[in-house]
Amino acid sequence: MNVLMLGAAGGIGSAIRSGLASRYALMRLADIAPLDAAGPGEETVKVDLLDLDGLVAAMAGIDCVVHMAGVPVEPETNAWEQVLPANIVGVHNLFEAARIAGVKRVLFASSHHAAGFHRRETATVETLVPRPDSYYGVSKVFGEAMGRMYADKFGLQVLSLRIGAYRERPSDPRQLAVWVSPRDMVELVRCGIEAPDFGYATVYGVSANTRNFWDNSAVAFLGYEPRDNAEAWAGEVMASSPPEDPAAAPFQGGWYCAKDFVGDPSRVG
Ligand SMILES: NC(=O)c1ccc[n+]([C@@H]2O[C@H](COP(=O)([O-])OP(=O)(O)OC[C@H]3O[C@@H](n4cnc5c(N)ncnc54)[C@H](O)[C@@H]3O)[C@@H](O)[C@H]2O)c1
């Protein structure tokens, strides 16, 4: 198995790099930022998501692409202008390069912010319907849609990972529900790379939190069994946290929903 990881210099990319080191025949690591020197079974390549030809070249001989590159948050200012290049144009280039290069599978780092305006009590099956809470969230809906189209039209296998909050440990009450530990994140990616063939699927990247908003029972074929639980920090987190913003508290996306929110949150059913 030959794997290419885009965004390998980033926070999640670095954890996957070390967590899956030496597991595959080749782990090709790509980023626009500098990367540590290649170890055994690794190659490094500098590539920009805006460079379609560079992406095609980086995907030569690759079976599975793990896409962890791009803008990972809603920027404070000029959000759309900042999200547009890497998360829209770059994500089109990702899938188009995979098609041209004959890649079999792409793991796309989506986000729960693709559906952040769902209320916290909403069942997982309903939250699969997009309800973005930000321009960043819209870019993740775009990536999921692009992946689905490439799966249906071109036969690419695509797994969208709706990552929760990736941290060493949860630090606010909402994260007690949406936290994903580094260990579980690496395991989810491993499952995505190694699962039997499928067409398209969306899975939540979340640990086994007592307070989870989501469950992954519909995608049990992946074999993902998270082991960590944010509840271990619940006492400490609850004791040290102020009440949530009224426009954040009802919704899965938290403060992404509250940012620039107009009106009464009850209008969002
Ligand atoms: N960290 C989280 O809690 C979280 C939650 C939900 C989703 N995600 C998603 O997971 C992915 C990884 O997140 P992260 O926290 O590791 O982010 P990060 O910012 O640490 O890593 C992103 C990497 O992408 C690279 N990159 C940016 N623009 C690029 C371009 N044009 N070409 C090539 N590389 C480029 C950066 O250099 C960086 O190394 C992102 O897509 C993010 O949206 C993260």
UniProtKB/TrEMBL annotation:
Span of domain NAD-dependent epimerase/dehydratase: 3-163
Signal peptide: none
Organism domain of life: Bacteria
Pathway field: Bacterial outer membrane biogenesis; LPS O-antigen biosynthesis
Family: Belongs to the NAD(P)-dependent epimerase/dehydratase family.
Listed name of the protein: NAD(P)-dependent oxidoreductase
Organism (species): Caulobacter segnis
